[in-house]
Design goal:
The complex is a heterodimer of chains A (1161) and B (333). Chain A has 1161 residues and is of the alpha+beta class. Chain A is built from 38 helices and 35 strands. In chain A, 47% of the residues lie in helices and 17% in strands. Classes of the chains: A alpha+beta (1161), B alpha+beta (333).
């Protein structure tokens, strides 16, 4: 039962992937396009929704039901929509044309043999779509029929109803750990103060709990009787995709008959697909249903990514089309020429003909008709089967990636997952990696490392000991000097203990965390919006300031008084909470203690806080700054703590102003709130700074080292400050000390002038200077860019210079980058350099980047599933990236390239033999092979070897791939699927087909081919040539394959034997076709000529390729071939692919080391 | 539960899923290359010689008679000669047997520039009608030879049957006629399955335009072997078809008189006609090309092998020499 529930919830999560993806891209890209109504007139367009709660006399709504469909199609639209998608492919369109023409007399083949493959190809795709949509439908059905307790009619208790039956205005009760079925207005919760906690992972990927508060006027509605009597009207905004805003009013009928209006905000709104946590139940009114809910409004189609190889394949298909049209024209023109002069050939009776294709009196018509016929006849040049085999192969490749034990992380129990199989081969061609730092390179598990209190730095040893020691010492110092009240909050400022105590208070109070219910344990566990806050709370607990309870308006702390060695329980009334945002970069709380002192406690980024210090608060600024830069150099994340005492009068004045701002409805509200907080967050006193460490993940430096050797340029895009970023850069071997480091940043002067032009010029000058600098070719370069500088550098006129410089550098570090910039950098790099980019990140802020890059990789880490949902590949740890790229990427690229080239080859060989025959039959458009032979060629006799090539081929073993990362450059240069290769294979195909055809017809010309004196006729020539073609192409694939397992042997040689089986069975089946002789048994089988011809022609047709390969491999070996040889030479058993007992001889390794520049330590 | 979930996500450790199936990775070592080329050469050349000698054992007499059988007075108007039904078209050819020919000796007629493989020609027949006596109206593809002028179905219909080859040969040596056995020249499966034993020719060759030979309406199609042979359309414009078999040996240097009735009109399209007498061996008739091809391919392989030996001697490369790796070569370039 439980398992069922959990599985259904994972399905649910899956279902939401798309919605979430979208929500974020929207947030980043279009955050400027908020509803542009400055006048918050409810009832006006944009704000027209009216919801009657519990009103039996309410007018009928026109709002949609709560049924949510994520399906793309329904029964009626499935076929048309799907087919339209399918026939947007040129090749499919062509085959449709061929199928239609096959129903006319023009066709050279039986209609079935043309329609069947098309039906198969399209059918497979349709089935795939259908199955996926069916899955969506079943999940939808499951989701929509989940039940929720709904208040139905007066007097009746809450009853279970399916989600889809919900209507706007219903009052529902949601229990703990349940998902909200629609967007709700929170009325009350199991907590007295109307508080509840929600998890919004499905919406924004954040796993931390968020607090929602009901209006005070509704908190009392906490049982069913009260709900009974409750009626209200909600006037609010129309459905929109903005997750973090809500504008509306609650009109409540008071007992005296008056109607009072209360403003609503986003903190009273519970969004669909978020989950109730840590709260037993809530009551809520349904405000938005089904398609109107914010989460659904946020969904958009995700970008469709196609690999370079596939895009190039399209071009190859165009080339083949040109070829097809050319030979079709030759055929039709040739035929019409002969038709005009065929009066001599009386036996054809052309003038008596009713056959339009050969009517000498209407040459033009004949030409056109024959052209159309030829288009179908030579259709085998277009490898329709290739599309199917590619789909199959990629699917299996993705399975292989998912099932690689080396890519399995024991710790998390997760494995690398290919979420799409479209991009397997793209993994082998990546040229640039754009990586997030926190959570991607690092663990995102914060460790409290250092702190600086009042200008003293702690944390060289055990930080807790040190700090506690210092604190005890101070307290006893104070005591000796006779000061009593040091521990209490007072207006005194002259004691140093006060500031230190205040440091702990900031830690314990200035946060949004809550206590997680744990049983028995003395130390408490916390949950908060960011991992840092949890770290701070845990540290404060260690320091003796244990935050242990939160209610809507109060926070409770157990403070240890070292002086009296007793624990004081204090209650702080939470007056205001000024939330953290990435633009504010700070957060404050205003609290009042038991004694009535009002404090503002603030934490935030150093530059922000330093700007807001008061005159008396700068005592320790100098020392703290020094410590901060030390911490940053060690690669720690830093934050500064400050506080402020507020007089009662002053607070009250401000509070009223703030209340006005809060009560404002509409977009200007934020602005007002911002202004209000600006006023109060001022004149602060600096108490100190903290530094937390975000440890590097296991294996990151090794992985990055390998990737760098593989010729990948790695860009680090992080929101951290420069020192931290550079430091991490060194520790993860992205930077090394023998690198030439360029720093691109704005000088203070330029920044202060705020003159855009001056700033741009400065950046341009810097870039120019870097360009000018002569660097020894051996030394690799690295670039460090600041967020502001990046903004300038990416502006239109400097962009080109900047990108040219950046691309030249082995690594680039961009610090202080916003999510939007991340995506922009990715897009620009992709566009301007044309390089294949891979973006890797773990958080919601990386989604833009992940979607913009050619390949997006999500780390399924601490920060929720947002990045994973948007990604094409997901992995539990960064360290798997090298294996994914160097091994699987390399293999998949190699496999797919070979597979496509071979398929093109095979179809050209087959198609051209048909064409050559036309030359000998006056271009009459007749077919040498039986229709079913033609179908079987691609369907049965040559398809499996292609798939085995695409699945099992390994040019180099996985160990060798990792051992020689530089091998990866083959993919970057694209040598396996270059035009040179493509043209080469086409040439080979033409040569092979010519050899096959000419040898066959010369050998099997007029004289008898059997002992019994029989001669070869058209069908016999057809079957012999067919045999040769099948053998040739199957032997050719055996020559391409470099890695033979038993599977390949069975498949390839089995395919060849299948040919005979097919010929036998086909002849034995009654009445399929006109030619029903037992060709194999009676005619060709007993003739030695047949077998001798097969042997000779197959060998001769492969000889050119064999000679070329032997020369190339012997004298111009490629890297992969060399590596296999090296393995062979050092007698390693590569057969098993296991760890090599005998490593490459050391001399050899050294040689390598010396010769690879990147290899240098 | 949780623990279980975690372990169940762990991929299975099979050789296939880990892509570690034991495999053979062929490496082109010089020894391997040279050995395989030499092996192929050594195998192919004797095979070729064998085929060549087999072809050599075939005795073949070819006599082109299309020009010779036109009287000199008609040499400029061969067409009108051949189209004149009242003309006696018999002509006598003399053949010399170069070597002893052992029975069975196959008699062929060879036509050139005759496009039996033309689509219009190939499809102009009705398999159903040939097989099934009740399907005589199945003349779907046979136009214009489907119905007679008075709308009776033609059996066998179509251009192929209509253009049936109708030259006849009578052979004699030293005044004694050599019997040409006309039985057993068609494929058995054709006679049994494709041509009905109860289907008789009807209205055949009754139109104004006479194509080729006529058929005896008393004999079922399955026994009309000349027709069956003719209806197996040839792949190329030059083709031979079996006319009959001689079951007696022909001695060396014997002179054979062939009495040819030159009926068939190839003059209109300038095609040649030849009378061929040939013995066969295991490779069939005379076919030097097969042997030559085998010998050439084998010889080419030997030649390549020698070249490789020389190349490896003068420009050797150590197997797996890391200095050939692209990233090691680059600095030099």
């Amino acid at each position: 039962m439980a398992a069922e529930a959990s599985s259904s919830s994972t399905v649910q999560t899956r279902e939401n992937e798309k919605k979430e993806k979208m929500s974020w891209s929207k947030l980043y890209t279009f955050s400027c396009i908020r509803p542009q109504s400055n006048k918050s007139d409810l009832g006006q367009p944009g704000f027209s929704r009216v919801v009657f709660c519990n009103n039996p006399n309410r007018p009928a709504y026109t709002y949609p039901s709560n049924y949510v469909a994520t399906t793309k199609y329904n029964l009626a639209t499935f076929l048309p929509k799907c087919l339209f998608e399918q026939f947007r492919r040129v090749a499919n369109m062509y085959f449709l044309l061929a199928a239609v023409l096959s129903l006319t007399s023009l066709t050279p083949f039986s209609p079935l043999s043309l329609i069947a493959p098309l039906l198969f190809v399209v059918g497979v795709s349709l089935m795939k779509e259908g199955v996926e949509d069916w899955r969506r439908r079943t999940t939808d059905r499951e989701v929509n029929s989940r039940t929720v307790k709904v208040h139905t009619a007066n007097g009746a208790p809450f009853t279970d109803r399916p989600w889809k039956a919900l209507q706007v205005g219903d009052i529902i009760k949601v229990g703990k750990n349940e998902y909200f079925p629609a967007d709700l207005l929170l009325l009350s919760s199991s907590y007295e103060d109307g508080l509840c906690y929600v998890e919004t992972m499905n919406l924004d990927g954040e796993t931390n709990l968020k607090i929602k508060r009901s209006l005070e006027c509704t908190t009392g509605l906490d049982d069913e009787q009260k709900i009974e009597k409750f009626t209200a009207t909600i006037r609010c905004e129309d459905p929109n995709p903005s997750l973090y805003t809500f504008v509306g009013n609650l009109d409540l009928g008071e007992e005296d008959g008056m109607i009072s209006s209360y403003p609503l905000s986003a903190s009273q709104i519970l969004l669909r697909d978020s989950k109730l946590q840590n709260t037993d139940y809530v009551y809520g009114v349904v405000v938005f249903t089904g398609p109107d809910t914010k989460v659904i409004r946020n969904s958009m189609a995700s970008p469709c990514k196609r690999s370079r190889v596939e895009r190039r394949m399209d071009h190859v298909i165009y080339v083949l089309f040109v070829m097809l049209i050319t030979i079709s024209m030759i055929t039709s023109i040739g035929s019409s020429r002969y038709t005009e002069t065929t009066e001599g050939r009386w036996y054809l009776r052309l003038l008596d003909g009713r056959d339009g294709s050969f009517d000498p009196t209407t040459p033009l018509k004949s030409t056109v008709l024959l052209f159309l016929r030829a288009l179908i006849l030579y259709g085998y040049l277009i490898p329709v089967s290739l599309y199917v085999s590619i789909e199959v192969v990629k699917f299996i490749q993705a399975l292989l990636i998912n099932n690689d034990l080396e890519l399995f992380d024991e710790l998390t129990g997760k494995s690398v997952e290919a979420r799409t199989s479209n991009l397997n081969e793209e993994l082998g061609q990546v040229q640039m990696i754009l990586s997030d730092k926190t959570g991607t390179l690092t663990c995102n598990r914060m460790e409290f490392k250092k702190c600086s209190i009042e200008g003293n730095s702690y944390g060289a040893g055990d930080i807790y000991e040190e700090v506690r020691g210092a604190y005890d010492q101070r307290v006893s110092c104070e005591e000796e000097s006779g000061v009593e009240v040091a521990f209490e909050i007072s207006s005194r400022t002259d004691t140093s203990v006060v500031d230190m105590t205040m440091f702990f208070r900031v830690m314990a109070l200035c946060h949004t965390g809550i206590v997680v219910e744990t049983e028995g344990s003395h130390t408490l566990q916390y949950e908060a919006e960011s991992p840092e806050e949890v770290t701070f709370l845990a540290a404060a607990q260690e320091f003796g300031f244990q935050f242990w309870k939160r209610t809507q308006s109060s926070m409770f702390v157990r403070e240890t008084d070292p002086h009296r060695s007793m624990v004081v329980q204090r209650q702080y009334e939470l007056l205001n909470l000024l939330e953290f945002s990435s633009s504010r970069k700070r957060m404050s709380v205003i609290v009042r203690d038991d004694a009535g002192h009002i404090l503002l406690l603030c934490k935030g980024a150093d530059d922000i806080i330093f700007d807001r210090l008061g005159g008396g608060g700068r005592t320790h600024q100098h020392a703290t700054t020094r410590h901060l830069s030390n911490y940053a150099e060690e690669g720690l994340r830093t934050m500064v703590f400050a506080y402020r005492r507020i007089e009662k009068a002053q607070y009250e004045e401000w509070a009223s102003m703030s209340a006005i701002a809060k009560a404002t409805i509409g977009p200007e509200r934020e602005e007002l709130l911002e202004k209000a907080s600006e006023i109060i967050e001022n004149d602060l006193v600096l108490v100190g700074a903290v530094a937390v460490e975000d440890r590097l993940q296991d294996g990151v430096p090794e992985c990055i080292g390998k990737l760098a050797q593989a010729g990948l340029h790695i860009w680090l895009l992080t929101g951290d400050k420069k020192e931290t970023a550079v430091n991490i850069g060194y520790s993860c071997s992205l930077l090394s000390h023998d690198m030439r480091l360029f720093h691109l940043s704005l000088s203070q002067d330029a920044e202060s002038t705020k003159d855009l032009k001056a700033m741009k010029d400065e950046i341009a000058d810097q870039i120019e200077a870097f360009h000018q600098e002569k660097v020894d070719g051996q030394v690799s370069k690295a670039l460090v860019v600041d967020g502001k500088a990046l903004e300038m550098a990416l502006s239109n006129d400097v962009k080109d210079h900047f990108l040219r410089l950046a691309v030249d550098c082995a690594s680039v570090i961009c610090c202080r980058v916003s999510p939007k910039q991340k995506a922009m950098v990715t897009r620009l790099v992709k566009k301007y350099t044309g390089k294949i980019t891979l973006a890797i990140g773990d958080g919601a802020n990386d989604v833009g980047m992940i979607q913009a890059a050619d390949i997006g990789v999500g780390i399924s880490g601490v920060e929720g599933m947002q990045a994973v949902m948007a990604s094409d590949f997901s992995m539990p740890q960064f360290r798997f990236l090298d294996r994914l790229l160097l091994v699987h990427g390399h293999w998949c690229y190699n496999r797919i390239s070979k597979m496509i080239l071979y398929s093109i080859y095979k179809n050209i060989v087959f198609g051209l033999t048909l064409f050559y025959f036309e030359v000998y039959s006056k271009f009459a458009g007749d077919v040498l092979y039986d229709g079913w032979y033609i179908v079987m060629f691609n369907l049965l006799l040559t398809s499996l070897p292609v798939i085995s090539l695409g699945v099992l081929e390994q040019d180099v073993s996985s160990n060798n791939c990792l051992e020689f990362p530089a091998l990866y450059k083959q993919g970057q240069k694209g040598i396996f699927f270059s035009w040179k290769q493509i043209i080469g294979w086409m040439g080979n195909a033409i040569l092979t087909s010519l050899t096959i055809f000419i040898l066959n017809i010369v050998m099997l010309s007029s004289s008898a081919f059997r002992h019994g004196g029989e001669v070869v006729d058209m069908y016999y020539l057809g079957v012999i040539m067919y045999t040769v073609v099948v053998w040739s192409v199957n032997c050719q694939i055996a020559l391409i394959i470099t890695h033979f397992t038993w599977i390949q042997h069975i498949i390839i040689w089995g395919s060849c034997l299948c040919l005979y089986l097919f010929l036998y069975v086909y002849a034995a089946l009654p009445g399929i076709h006109t030619v029903r002789e037992k060709l194999l048994v009676e005619v060709v089988g007993p003739a030695p000529m047949y077998w001798m011809t097969t042997l000779l022609v197959v060998f001769a047709s492969l000889l050119p390729y064999v000679i070329y390969t032997v020369i190339q491999r012997s004298f111009y070996p490629t890297d992969d071939q060399l590596i296999v040889e090296m393995r062979h030479a050092s007698n390693v058993d590569f057969n098993t692919g296991e760890l090599h007992e005998e490593p490459v001889p050391e001399v050899l390794e050294l040689e390598l080391l010396e010769s690879i520049p990147e290899h240098h330590p | 539960m949780d623990q279980k979930n975690k372990t169940s996500k762990k991929p299975k450790n099979s050789k296939f899923s880990q892509q570690e199936l034991p495999a053979w990775k062929p490496i082109l070592t010089p020894g391997w290359v040279i050995t395989s080329f030499i092996t192929i050469g050594v195998l192919f050349i004797p095979t070729g010689l064998l085929a060549l000698s087999a072809s050599d054992n075939v005795v073949e007499i070819v006599d082109r008679y299309d020009e010779g059988c036109i009287p000199d007075s008609y040499s400029q108007k061969a067409e009108s000669y051949i189209q004149n039904p009242n003309q006696n078209k018999t002509c006598v050819r003399t053949l010399r047997v170069p070597k002893k020919m052992v029975a069975p000796i196959f008699v062929y007629y060879q036509l050139e520039k005759f496009y039996q493989n033309h689509r219009r020609f190939v499809k102009s027949k009705s398999d159903k009608q040939l097989r099934d006596a009740d399907a005589q109206d199945d003349t779907h593809n046979c136009f214009p030879e489907d119905y007679t002028a008075d709308n009776k179905p033609i059996v066998p219909c179509g251009l192929i049957a209509w253009s049936l080859f109708n030259d006849t040969y009578k052979l004699s040596a030293r005044g004694k006629a050599i019997n040409i056995d006309k039985k057993g020249i068609a494929w058995k499966s054709d006679m049994e399955a494709k041509f009905g034993s109860n289907v008789y020719p009807k209205n055949f060759q009754k139109g104004t335009l006479i194509g080729g030979g006529k058929l005896d309406e008393r004999i079922p199609l399955s026994e009309q072997e000349d027709l069956i042979v003719w209806m197996r359309t040839a792949a190329l414009p030059t083709f031979r078809k079996l006319y009959g078999k001689i079951n007696t040996d022909l001695e060396s240097h014997e002179t054979i008189t062939a009495e040819v009735e030159n009926n068939y009109n190839t003059y209109k399209f300038g095609g040649r006609k030849k009378l061929v007498l040939s013995t066969t061996t295991w490779i069939g008739g005379k076919n030097d090309f097969l042997g030559i091809a085998y010998i050439s391919v084998g010889g080419l392989c030997l030649f390549i092998a020698i070249n490789f030996i020389l190349l490896y001697v003068f420009r050797p490369r150590r197997l797996g020499d890391p200095s050939y790796l692209s990233w090691n070569r680059q600095p030099i370039v």
